[in-house]
Known about the structure:
- Chain A has eight helices and no strands.
- Chain A is mostly helical.
- In chain A, helix 5 (about 130-160) runs antiparallel to helix 6 (about 165-195) and helix 7 (about 205-225) packs antiparallel against helix 8.
- Chain B contains eight helices and 17 strands.
- In chain B, helix 6 (about 120-140) runs antiparallel to helix 7 (about 150-170).
Amino acid sequence: xxxxxxxxxxxxxxxxxxxxxxxxxxxxxxxxxxxxxxxxxxxxxxxxxxxxxxxxxxxxxxxxxxxxxxxxxxxxxxxxxxxxxxxxxxxxxxxxxxxxxxxxxxxxxxxxxxxxxxxxxxxxxxxxxxxxxxxxxxxxxxxxxxxxxxxxxxxxxxxxxxxxxxxxxxxxxxxxxxxxxxxxxxxxxxxxxxxxxxxxxxxxxxxxxxxxxxxxxxxxxxxxxxxxxxxxxxxxxxxxxxxxxxxxxxxxxxxxxxxxxxxxxx
Amino acid sequence: xxxxxxxxxxxxxxxxxxxxxxxxxxxxxxxxxxxxxxxxxxxxxxxxxxxxxxxxxxxxxxxxxxxxxxxxxxxxxxxxxxxxxxxxxxxxxxxxxxxxxxxxxxxxxxxxxxxxxxxxxxxxxxxxxxxxxxxxxxxxxxxxxxxxxxxxxxxxxxxxxxxxxxxxxxxxxxxxxxxxxxxxxxxxxxxxxxxxxxxxxxxxxxxxxxxxxxxxxxxxxxxxxxxxxxxxxxxxxxxxxxxxxxxxxxxxxxxxxxxxxxxxxxxxxxxxxxxxxxxxxxxxxxxxxxxxxxxxxxxxxxxxxxxxxxxxxxxxxxxxxxxxxxxxxxxxxxxxxxxxxxxxxxxxxxxxxxxxxxxxxxxxxxxxxxxxxxxxxxxxxxxxxxxxxxxxxxxxxxxxxxxxxxxxxxxxxxxxxxxx
Lengths: 266, 420
């Protein structure tokens, strides 16, 4: 099967999502423009799904090997989860956020295609690879959404507006995101045993993944015990996402990562 | 802490947690500086088993008979958990920022154990504090038993088992390397310090196999072999029929061999020791109308690489192919079994009794023609304990996602709302 052209499809998805975001922003709650907004968003998702399926079939392996391919999945899951959160809780801004962040990730692919295509190294050829990456992308996407909720909460707090609604949404997102994060960490441990001989080696990427995990663990326990400390909870949540970003992007640039096994993308 | 309650008056909370953290840091760093670094081997079997049982038993007894103690009461609640989490976060943050096992680190960093955090007293103390808090909190939900607490117990007890098993079991982990040559039987393995061990298994390497991705074509500076600027995007695979534009030249691959040898000006396909990839290509420059034709190869240990000169500065080159898979066909000898053949591949280790045999590396001077294969032999007797914890945590994570109801943060000091 001939693969579909990644650039064209990526661009088409981006256009769909940005238009959907625009329609969701300005269309009234009911009526044709709103339906167009839904349609545009779903079309973007379908195009992305088609691209991923086509890549998967044409390459005969999961398109999860390079940073570029990772971004495609991220670009798919962010709008999907943003849309799901919107459907469930009615937060329109989630769609704007998800569309913009997904666009940013996909633009990196379009502007830096040299990052895109790399050979798969033997250590990555494992049945653990797909679940490990998928649950992490889910976790990162949901936790990214929780970070935006935290920032919105901090802004509202500064304006002396109530933030309990934001925290309630953040709690739901963190519970889901933390579940995925734990699965990702544990899948990684089981895979590590098969590929490198040990389930945990304090490789820099593992160290930062652990930090991310324990920060969200702290947030969950803080919320249980000090539910009324809203400002502290919001700051912990925002800080946790900062750690997550280092775990995800930043590790390769840290001096402590000189010998990391997780730096495939170089 | 806006709490009007004076510190060290029951029930303890965050202030006491901070003092405990400070105390552990002082004692731990004192031990580091006094020249008593933690010797991980001191925890080796059976010390670790005794320690694990004694620690757990102490927690059970404390929970059953010491509930009135402010210590036990405090350990079982969220403030102690959060403070121990905060201390661990701080220590792991240092681990994440300071290069570990770095012999060039400053003497102070080394003496404080900041570049060997997992062998640092403070880290060990923090982990045991965390485990104590986790253990007491778990026991509070275990006794009396209620199925309602299943999710909570999967997560908390699972974490306790996994962390305790990993922490204490680390001393019993053995990682040895065994170098095996084709046709020879080996039963000796060496540890990182060069000590040689006689293994309860022997390996005869029948054949080492390596598969490679097709090499790529790229424009390089003829002198330095450096990639031509901005040409990274132009690279494409050197497979028959492929064409593309590299550094302004239209390049077509007419013929490509993954295994070949040079014969005068040509390359002929052969399957023999030292064979390497080659391709016959033409390069046409549309602006100048020039055309170049010839064979290129990345070479092998048996013959040099060959470039196709494009102009005075640049040449067309073939990149060294990257491994797509490598594995060893072996014959395995163990005391209690007939010799049997087996395959050891990256990501597919072989289990032999208590040992796992991993494909570690090969002699990369010879690449696919290596007749040496290096195996890593790993023994981790505590793995079943850690895996029990890990699988409980996996189930607990799913429970958390699907079942957990978010506790309403109604009471400012309310504990134990969390059903998962």
